């Protein structure tokens, strides 16, 4: 589900996707009420588009009822929010989506304002306690509710894309099972990763099953910086640009670290052995 000016629901089936767009009446107050009735519902399947009047069993459905109706098809749905386009009362959203397990928050603005930051904080406060999978894409945060607070929320999966407030030193205190990070290259990145793996060897991140960090660079990474002091065992040679190593922590748990550098793309993946 995409919560924007005109909320949309994408339903994925085997080899097919159907998109329902709920067009709302113009609202000069800029706040859409979930009790409002959509003007119409557009349905897009492939290249075919059809329009439906929002009626079911001869009874008009409100936006909130539409959302609950779609969610009834699967409790494994994800709701995506777009900073700057969130025009709904957060409390009413929380009531419409109780126990929501998967959310994504995206900011498309280069310079988000204070209202955007406040809106993001309200969203996270409303849903974070129940969420198991969280995606953050360039989301404006604040010290009152920072990435550090989010990382300690016992998430099953956390995906972070180009967060300006990301500090790899903080990851050692986070509670997650799986985490995927897309970040920008900087001179201390490999040093930070080395320090993180050393902390894992000493016992940090007991919940962690997998961590992947990706970035782009025109410079060939010096993997010796990342490996310094890890006492890693390298597996048999792999194609150029790829390495696989094994490290073990004080609990006797072994993990594999994969390095891949193809063209300008670099990926480091940490994963526990089965």
From TrEMBL:
Coiled coil: none annotated. Transmembrane segments: none annotated. It comes from the Eukaryota. InterPro entries: F-box_Sdz-33 (IPR012885), Zygotic_Embryogenesis-Asso (IPR053222). Pfam families: FBA_2. Residues 147-213 form the Sdz-33 F-box domain. PANTHER family: CYCLIN-RELATED F-BOX FAMILY, F-BOX ASSOCIATED DOMAIN-CONTAINING PROTEIN-RELATED. This is Sdz-33 F-box domain-containing protein.
